[in-house]
Amino acid sequence: MSPKKSTKNIKESVPAAVEAIKDNDILLRIKNLRVWFELRRFGFGVAGHVRAVDGVEFDLGHSEAIAVVGESGCGKSSLMKTILGLYEPTEGEVVFEGANVSQMGAKGLRWYRANVGYVQQDPFGALAPFMSVQRILEEPLIVNGVRDPAEREQRIRKVLEEVKMFPVEDFLGKFPHMLSGGQQQRVVIARAMIMEPKLIVADEPVSMLDASVRVEILKLLRNLQEKHHLAVIYITHDLATVRYFSERIFVMYAGKLVEKASVKELLYNPKHPYTLALLTGTSEPDAANAKTFKEIPPGEPPSLVTPPPGCRFHPRCSHKIDGVCDVKEPPDFPVADHHQVACWLFEPK
């Protein structure tokens, strides 16, 4: 597809429903999302499915920051890549400004990806080693039809200033190996911001950085979010960092969201046994009930190929109800305003 097409023309290819609800509070809507990967055995065809994401639902408002938290292998990355349009949903929908991402077509996807920035976990691996900082930031502008070299340079300088890389002239000609880890991540953030997106998806953006720069990078992202009224999805396994960044937390376990709440509500009034156990490993000093938390019982997260019946956490839960938790899958029960938990312990009596 020619890079000479402007983002205006790309946007015109998106279904009219995008324009119809532009002023709606919801920017992104995830509807009953399932992402299953086929397991194939040579000579036997499909041997099963890995249920990486299994029935996830949530809404994301304009200018809202949320965090998706969980252990490695819980499905966070598969959820993120499906939102980015890299994976096709097995079932359900990813709806952005009223348009189903799976039905956008090539031009619509280009428009969508210009509106969704991606901050990778490993900044060095995310940057092409043979490209200078200027070339790295120029490429998405060229691909999305910004043909004027003067405009490209102006936007590159502006975004480098926004990520606090001063003086700009000192960084334009540098290559990734010439930068520190924190500087590399600032370039990744600058690349995510270069097309002035409406949504940023940040995949554990500080996990590869030294502790001394983690809060600095999170505060930078938060300042950019507030300045540009961005929506942000922050993927992490560390509950200690979410208070710097998010307004709501979604706790994920074995492909499902087991608790959804505001940051304050979840840290000070956690309900799901898995959330309580997660907080034992956090450095969050102010979380309520810290002394009463119990560690997750020994064992591994369940197989996503053959998940257990009922609640997927019940094999490791010290509070399970026999004949209930191991039989029926719990729905989301409201326990407070904007606080839901998928646990039979909170079924209304």
What features would you describe in this structure?
- The chain has an eight-stranded mixed β-sheet with strand order 6-7-8-3-9-10-12-11. The chain has a four-stranded antiparallel β-sheet with strand order 2-1-4-5.
- Residues 1-23 and 288-293 have low confidence and may be disordered.
- The longest helix has 18 residues, at 211-228.
- With 349 residues, the chain is of the alpha/beta class.
- Helices cover 30% and strands 23% of the residues.
- A hairpin with a 3-residue loop joins strand 1 (26-41) and strand 2.
- It has a domain at 7-115 and 195-291 and 334-342: Rossmann fold, CATH 3.40.50.300.
- The radius of gyration is 21 Å and the shape is globular.
Radius of gyration: 21 Å
CATH superfamily of the domain at 7-115 and 195-291 and 334-342: P-loop containing nucleotide triphosphate hydrolases
Assigned CATH architecture of the domain at 7-115 and 195-291 and 334-342: 3-Layer(aba) Sandwich
The CATH topology annotation of the domain at 7-115 and 195-291 and 334-342 reads as Rossmann fold
Task: Give the class-level CATH name of the domain at 7-115 and 195-291 and 334-342.
Answer: Alpha Beta
Large-scale geometry: globular
**H-E order:** HHEEEHEEHEHHHHHEHEEEHHEE
Looking at the chains present, what oligomeric state does this protein adopt? single chain
Low-confidence stretches: 1-23, 288-293
Number of helices: 12
Query: Which structural class is indicated by helix and strand composition?
Result: alpha/beta
Query: Strand order within the widest sheet?
Result: 6-7-8-3-9-10-12-11
> End-to-end span in angstroms?
59 Å
Fraction of residues in helices?
25-40%
Strand content: 15-25%
Largest sheet: 8 strands, mixed
SS elements, strand count: 12
Overall pLDDT score: 88
